[in-house]
Design a protein that fits this description.
The protein is mostly helical and 160 residues long. The protein has one domain: Hypothetical protein af1432, CATH 1.10.3210.10. The protein is built from eight helices and no strands. It starts with a helix and ends in a 26-residue tail after the last helix. 36% of the residues are buried.
């Protein structure tokens, strides 16, 4: 069994993902659900393989599955979701087989996944940042005209 399986079976993780679903039930674009988490992981794997990052799959998947898990906290009290996600993820990762160095790398990537300064770093942080942005099909989104993302940040071409 892959180590990231323990994440998706974790009761705390499931609770946060279900809470996010409720908060985003009427949201027209940019859902932070399992489809998004898996899209980030899969685009991340493509980048990982084509650009020779050599990041282990189970590390990348853990970061992708957890990177937005604190969205519900942001909806509830305004805490930036990257901070809430890192805090929640730390607790969840303690119940897995990831070692201290791996947990630290994953948590650092989660906490910085909205920081544009790390975009080009050739590590898990840069990879997670890029995969999170590249996985959005803005070019086909019905709500694209109302989206708050600036035009130069939107994915208006099929990249893969």
């Amino acid at each position: 069994m892959e180590r990231y399986q323990a994440i998706i079976e974790n009761k705390e993780y499931i609770t946060h993902v279900r809470n996010i679903e409720k908060y985003e039930a009427d949201r027209e674009f940019g859902h932070h659900d399992m489809s998004h988490f898996l899209d980030v992981a899969r685009v991340g794997m493509l980048l990982n393989l084509t650009e020779d990052y050599n990041i282990p799959k189970d590390i990348l998947y853990a970061a992708a599955l957890l990177h937005d898990v604190g969205r519900d906290v942001q909806y509830e009290d305004g805490t930036p979701h990257e901070i809430a996600s890192a805090e929640i993820s730390e607790h969840i990762l303690m119940s897995t087989d990831y070692n201290e160095d791996e947990r630290s790398m994953i948590l650092e990537a989660i906490a910085s996944h909205r920081n544009d300064d790390i975009r080009d770093e050739r590590n898990l942080k840069g990879l997670l940042y890029r995969a999170d942005k590249l996985c959005r099909p803005c070019f086909f989104c019905k709500a694209e005209p109302e989206c708050y993302w600036k035009r130069d940040k939107k994915n208006m071409e099929l990249i893969w």
